[in-house]
Amino acid sequence: MSKLDPQPGLSPYPLQHFYDEMYADERSIRSHYKHVNRMFTGMSSEELQSKQNLMQRRMMEEGITFTLYNPAQDQPMERTIPFDMIPRIIPKGEWERLEAGIVQRITALNLFIHDIYHEQYIVKDGIVPRRMIVSNCYFRPEMAGLRVPGGAYVTTSGIDLIRHHDGEYYVLEDNLRTPSGFSYLFKGRTLMNQLFPELSFASSIRDVDHSLNRFLSVLRSLSPSRISDPVIALLTPGEYNSAYYEHAFLAQQMGIHLVEGRDLVAKDHKIYLKEMNGLRRVDVLYRRLDDDFIDPLAFQPNSLLGVAGLMNAYRAGNIAIANAPGTGVADDKAMYVYVPDMIRYYLNEEPILGNVPTYLLSRPEERQHVLDHLQEMVVKETSLSGGYGMLIGSEASKEEQDSFRLKILAEPERYIAQPIMSLSRAPVLSGGAMTPRHIDLRAFVLMGADRKPHVIPGGLTRVAMREGSLVVNSSQGGGVKDTWVMA
């Protein structure tokens, strides 16, 4: 018997008041986890450690890394992303409801982005305040009236979901600009199949590999040239970017060009790739850097990462950019509050998935409530992501709370607040034993010219590796798990 669980079926740790993904209660395992539990509890600590070492070695050999930036350190730290071997499992019916809710949400968000850059009906009808649009740092007036290839503004998106202690899923935030994590989803499944073939092949789970083909077909569908084999390039900031491994992986897997800004040139309102034997026209640019840096003639004039003249080529209809510039206006954390209203307005439907209760600190009564209960709140800067610019009241010292209080009072419109949610937990392997860690789920969605969202089965489960922590972001030291959807 392994060190993990001296009595299979009994929880090896106290469940407390959190929802546990594997254990229904102290004495029973959820039915969809029984096979996985039996497998891991049947292995010795030595076997598990050997598998963990092999996993780490494979990740090192393949360069599966993520770069951490710590202000306390002079240099960024590149590391293999922590990968836990116990998969997170989602039953078929549960996933079908999640999938329907995510498709509904992305459909409404895409309609919203089109609307605010064209007729702005949602503003005229008083659903979303005009000031929320024009004062948003991600709103791009350059996109007004511009035709986007296929009408698909949000080609790739990552919807972050949590499960509360009530067992319900809630949307935590929408990532619509340059969402990351695709590579960890695909590589995680490959590594699990290699290390535990008897486990993955004996389980009836949805395949994810076909989604790479879907990814490529979605990018192809955006091509303005309508040729059968368009030239597609992935624009990366370069090897020093924290997600560079992912950029290289996706380009290699889809057979598209991996380029930096210096590899491209604008000519006659078209974008060309510089090759040994001349120039080759690019039809679709999947960009992995923010709007500010993609074109120094249109946005940040000192940017060395983008392509001068890219926006002119885009306006002329000679290239598709995924995701479209200006999509960030819809994933601003203050705009998140209005997404349920967008669903009702554009689709005439009730939201399938709920939001986490959110306070807009620009509203005096909500601001005062948050300031009175700061120790019970998570406060976030509306324009930041990756766990930056955030206060978790229950973990913050009085000095940190007081400092944040002054920031809120000085610029309340920059912040939103949410009550601290009890993220569900799942067991991870640590030192040959099972121990609980908080998790969330990033669901990835692809949308092409047909505007029919495809949700990759399972997505990426992110893990707060520090005991008791609620911060799952890779940029803050979080890890990942393979996510299985039962077929």
UniProtKB/TrEMBL annotation:
Domain Circularly permuted ATP-grasp type: 87-464
Coiled-coil parts of chain: none
InterPro entries assigned to the protein according to its UniProt record, in alphabetical order: ATP-dep_Glu-Cys_Ligase-2, CP_ATPgrasp_2, UCP005522
Gene3D superfamilies registered for this protein in UniProt: 3.30.1490.270, 3.40.50.11290
Pfam family, one: CP_ATPgrasp_2
Protein name in the entry: Circularly permuted ATP-grasp type 2 domain-containing protein
Native species: Paenibacillus donghaensis
